[in-house]
Design a protein that fits this description.
Elements: H1 11-29, H2 32-53, H3 59-78, H4 81-90, H5 94-97, H6 110-120, H7 127-137, H8 143-150, H9 154-170, H10 178-183, H11 188-217, E1 221-222, H12 228-244, H13 249-262, H14 288-304, H15 309-322, H16 331-344, H17 348-362, H18 364-372, H19 384-397, H20 400-413, E2 415-416, H21 417-431
Parallel strand pairs: 1-2
């Protein structure tokens, strides 16, 4: 049955529902590869049928029903008759087909996405595989997008995803969130091990959500600077994780970071979709409610939970957002926060941000010396962000020819059209 005014399938809706449907199938049936294929077939069916027949009243239930049928058919074709009959009887989750009224029946639909998040971050998967698989299954990113987000070759990323799927397929470990697993462990030693597993899985979940948000906030390729659907979905999922673990400072810190960063979204592009850098943005267009919520979250986390990288990143974002104008930014405070951050996480991206803060406090030449140390970093070498920052620092230092060359080099390395045009415009402006 459809709405009186039928609505076709929308890409945003299908993207949001895909991990929920996959999570529901995996929670009940397992068979990661087969379930993923079945979900993709259901999404294709929706894209074909909904424009003609209208969107179902319960789109999620429709997708689960179609995907379950596809999965049942596939398992039937692969198993013996006895196994087929048992599988057919088991794969009839009628309570999934009709959503219960609010407040009744099973947990909210997003719980299935959380189940999928924690499933993909299982302890028996290598860390790199957990992150890659989650970005694929939950974030809906392509292998190429994941490779760019993690700064590794696409072929390497494809192998990681394949290995992770293979490991899940052959593992007897149960599904479920860490909390559900821990409840089944009674002995103290086992509980301690589960606690360590919980922390590791949560760290991976937060890292994946951070990567999904970053891809949405600044797309690594394409004609649009931002993919608002991805950023919005990352915020929604992080809210769910924070609600599940309200006393975890890093979950709160990540949610605060996303809110404080996403608050600037409307001011980041011009009417023609061109990139507007932070220093030139119209701050009256920033979302003040999101900023207030983000500041409150990170302030609370910093006062009552152990310090972590996401809290520090959120604190840096808060300093930017609370400044009345770019000239009012407290760069000394930002530098102090970066000094702590790079001690906790001495990664290339953190060191790149630290170099910018050094330039704003101590001048570009000292920052350029720090940047030179990143030229040999395997993750950043040849990456457009390194060259873009170098160009900015060279321009600050008054080395116009070198800055122009660095801007041009950065423009040639990025796959994002708005970023390329912005970098080219900077190079052209220096040449005038």
């Amino acid at each position: 049955m459809t709405h009186p005014a039928p609505e076709p399938a929308s890409e945003d809706l299908l993207r949001r529902l895909a991990p929920q449907v996959l999570g529901a199938l995996l929670r009940r049936y397992g068979h990661f590869d087969a379930a993923e294929d079945a979900v993709q077939e259901a999404l294709l069916a929706a894209a074909r049928q909904w424009p003609e027949e209208g969107r179902p009243r319960n789109p999620r239930g429709w997708l689960i029903r179609v995907a379950s049928r596809r999965l049942t058919d596939q398992l039937r074709s692969e198993d013996a008759r006895r196994r087929r009959e048992e599988t057919a009887a088991a794969l009839t989750p009628r309570d999934e087909f009709v959503a219960p009224p609010p407040g009744e029946g099973r947990a909210p639909a997003e719980d299935d996405t959380l189940t999928l998040l924690f499933l993909c971050c299982r302890a028996d998967l290598p860390a790199a595989g957990r992150i890659a698989l989650t970005l694929r299954a939950v974030g809906g990113l392509t292998t190429a997008e994941i490779a760019r987000a993690l700064l590794v070759p696409e072929a390497t990323m494809a192998q990681r995803i394949s290995r992770a799927k293979r490991r899940i397929r052959t593992s007897p470990s149960p599904f479920g969130t860490p909390a559900e697993t821990a409840d089944r462990e009674q002995e103290q030693e086992q509980e301690q091990e589960r606690e360590r597993e919980r922390a590791a899985r949560l760290a991976d979940v937060l890292h994946v959500l951070y990567l999904i948000f970053n891809e949405g906030y600044t797309a690594t390729s394409g004609r649009e600077l931002q993919r608002a659907d991805l950023a919005t979905e990352a915020i929604r999922l992080t809210r769910a994780v924070h609600a599940l673990l309200p006393d975890d400072g890093e979950a709160a810190g990540l949610l605060a970071l996303m809110l404080l960063t996403d608050a600037r979204r409307a001011a980041r592009t011009g009417p023609d979709g061109s990139l507007v850098p932070l220093a030139e943005q119209d701050r009256t267009r920033w979302d003040r409610d999101a900023i207030a919520e983000g500041v409150a979250l990170v302030s609370d986390a910093l006062t009552r939970t152990p310090l972590g990288p996401y809290q520090l990143r959120a604190a840096i974002a808060a300093v930017h957002d609370e400044a009345a104008g770019d000239e009012d930014t407290d760069w000394a405070e930002i530098l102090a926060l970066y000094e702590v951050l790079v001690r906790l996480v001495p990664g290339p991206v953190e060191r790149l941000g630290h170099a910018v803060a050094v330039a704003m406090v101590h001048g570009p030449r000292r920052a350029l010396d720090l940047l030179a140390a990143l030229d040999d970093d395997d993750h950043l070498a040849g990456h457009h962000r390194l060259e873009a920052v170098r160009a900015h620092l060279l321009e600050m230092a008054g080395d116009r020819a070198a800055a122009r060359a660095a801007y041009a080099k950065a423009a040639g390395l990025t796959l994002s059209t708005p970023e390329r045009r912005y970098l080219q415009s900077r190079a052209a402006r220096i040449a005038e």
